[in-house]
From TrEMBL:
One of its GO terms (cellular component) is cytosol. PROSITE patterns: GUANYLATE_KINASE_1, GUANYLATE_KINASE_2. It is an enzyme of class 2 (transferase). It comes from marine sediment metagenome. Transmembrane segments: none annotated. This is guanylate kinase. NCBIfam families: guanyl_kin (TIGR03263). Keywords: ATP-binding, Kinase, Nucleotide-binding, Transferase. Its EC number is 2.7.4.8. InterPro entries: GK/Ca_channel_bsu, Guanylate_kin-like_dom, Guanylate_kinase, Guanylate_kinase_CS, P-loop_NTPase. The keyword Iron does not apply. GO terms for molecular function: ATP binding; GMP kinase activity. CDD domains: GMPK.
């Protein structure tokens, strides 16, 4: 891993449905940040693009990358594997680009251990009711799966005090500022 002082690394984490993807995309539109595209074993959602939103790979490919030490952090989230490539992150840092990452809560803490100057931002939903509404509105999962995500969100929020900043996402423009 490279000298961490060359670039600003911003890590955005949140429970599913809190708006981290929306916030990250808006941040990228209004800034010169590079985006660290994560690897995942989950299938692409509608409108997701390979190499832009994620690198979609098989479980076998992912496990090989884990064994080869290719990830700065990786985790199983909602039954799928996600990981941040050391090479892709270090390449952005090497070119002195500021980088934004969107990772799960434990991944954010792992990145902070390896890149101590990284800025961790934990995005919170305005309420549990709003979180449920957002997950339901996605129309991508069954009711039982939504309940599982809410249960997981309650666990993830316990990591919020380990983050540098807590942002309530009740309005995307306010959250961006």
């Amino acid at each position: 891993m490279l000298d961490k002082t060359k670039s600003l690394i911003i890590v955005i984490s949140a429970p599913s449905g809190a708006g981290k993807t929306t916030l990250t995309k808006r941040l990228l539109q209004i800034s010169s940040f590079a985006y660290s595209v994560s690897f995942t074993t989950r299938p692409p959602r509608k409108n997701e693009i390979e190499g832009v939103d994620y690198y979609f790979i098989s479980n076998e490919e992912f496990q090989k990358m884990v064994e080869e030490g290719k990830f700065v952090e990786w985790a199983r989230v909602h039954g799928q594997l996600y990981g941040t490539s050391i090479d892709l992150l270090d390449n952005a840092i090497e070119t002195k680009k500021d980088v934004v990452l969107e990772v799960d809560v434990k991944g954010g803490i792992e990145i902070k251990k390896k890149y101590p100057k990284a800025v961790l931002i934990f995005l919170l939903p305005p309420s549990w009711q709003e979180l449920e509404k957002r997950l339901d509105k996605r129309n991508t999962e069954a009711e039982e799966r939504i309940r599982e995500r809410i249960k997981q969100a309650k666990k993830e929020i316990t990591y919020a005090p380990s983050y540098d900043y807590l942002v309530v996402n009740d309005d995307i423009n306010k959250a961006l500022s």
